[in-house]
Each structure stands twice: as structure tokens, then as C-alpha cells.
Design goal:
alpha+beta, 3 helices, nine-stranded antiparallel beta sheet, three-stranded antiparallel beta sheet
């Protein structure tokens, strides 16, 4: 377990911190159907997937796996715990000094009946989770020096969600958002 203490977590071999270029060109899609590729907000195809098409000033870039059909581009389904997900998104951002945006967040929505099995697999790999309760909801959190995994699965809910986060990028973006909020409040 000590080897995982410093390395960013990975989802099925896709590590947090990978560059956008590596993700787009060197990482196979972890989705179905076969032939799925990464489509990002910087691509014209993003609009057909219901994503915003990014402009040059965007701090964060969202990507999804998608595939081309006769009717146009369709979102693919990421595979979570050997089953298709309902939704997924990967987010990239470049902190000051970084030449390329890095994967800082992955989010997957999947069938809640798989949550216990998925939690058991994470616990077997990373150890026991910390349980956090807020507003009647419980989350399991795995955390190391560089990243975290949050599994949100509540009894009676049809879906569960798992979020992988890269801590330094998340903190930088939160600080940036706070600066923008203060600047906007001062401008009113």
C-alpha cells in the first residue's frame, strides 16, 4: 500500500495527472462500443454530445468517450466495475507553469447495485475508506498525498457516483474561483 501513498490514483490504468495529449492519443478508451475515442470541449463534435464548445480562455476542459454512428456522434459508456456507466466526464486543467492541461478529475455515474462491490475492490487495493456524512448522505473517501477517490452511494438511490480528484489542481481551481468570486463581488 505504501507505493500508492504518493502516486495519483488511477481508474482502470488511467492515472490522474496524465496530459491531455497523452489521454487523447495514447490512452485507449475505457468505454463501449469498441472504437470509442476521446471527444473534448475543444472539438467541434462536443456540441453534438451536449457539451459546451470551449473557447481559448477556458481554464478547465471536459472530455468524454464517444463514437460515431450513422446519426452522428453519440456518447459512449465508460465501464465501471465490469458494467456500462450512465454518464462520465474527465476534466483537464493546466496550472501555472504547466505546458499541457492535466487530468485532474474523473467522474462516473453507475448502477448503485454495483457500489458495494466497487467499494470492496477499492478497499482491497487502497485500504479502508474514511466515511463522511453530510445532509443525510454518506460518502466513502480514499485519500493519499496527491489524490482522492470519493464514492457516493446511498441506500435507495438508483445510481452511485465515483469521483477521482488530483489534489493540487483541485485546490488551485478552488483558489482561482474564490478570486473570481471576490473580484465579481467588488465590481458590483
Amino acid at each position: 500500500m505504501l507505493a500508492f501513498a504518493q502516486k495519483p490514483y488511477a481508474f482502470r490504468g488511467l492515472p490522474l495527472g496524465i496530459s491531455l495529449d497523452e489521454f487523447r492519443h495514447q490512452t485507449p478508451a475505457l468505454a463501449i462500443p469498441d472504437g470509442s475515442v476521446a471527444v473534448c470541449e475543444t472539438d467541434a463534435e462536443a456540441a453534438s454530445l451536449g457539451m459546451n464548445v470551449a473557447v481559448g480562455s477556458n481554464v478547465s476542459i471536459a472530455c468524454k468517450w464517444a463514437h460515431r454512428t450513422q446519426a452522428g456522434w453519440q456518447a459512449s459508456q465508460a465501464i465501471v466495475d465490469c458494467a456500462p456507466s450512465f454518464d462520465h466526464v474527465m476534466r483537464f486543467a493546466a496550472m501555472p507553469g504547466e505546458s499541457s492541461p492535466r487530468l485532474y478529475r474523473m467522474s462516473f455515474v453507475f448502477d448503485s447495485r454495483l457500489a458495494r462491490d466497487f467499494a470492496d475492490a477499492l478497499a482491497a487495493r487502497y485500504g479502508a475508506a474514511r466515511v463522511q456524512r453530510k445532509h443525510g448522505y454518506a460518502s466513502r473517501i480514499w485519500e493519499n498525498a496527491t489524490s482522492s477517490i470519493t464514492l457516493e452511494a446511498n441506500e435507495g438511490a438508483a445510481t452511485a457516483r465515483v469521483i477521482y480528484r488530483l489534489k493540487d489542481h483541485e485546490a488551485w481551481l478552488a483558489h482561482l474561483n474564490e478570486q473570481w468570486r471576490v473580484a465579481a463581488a467588488m465590481g458590483e
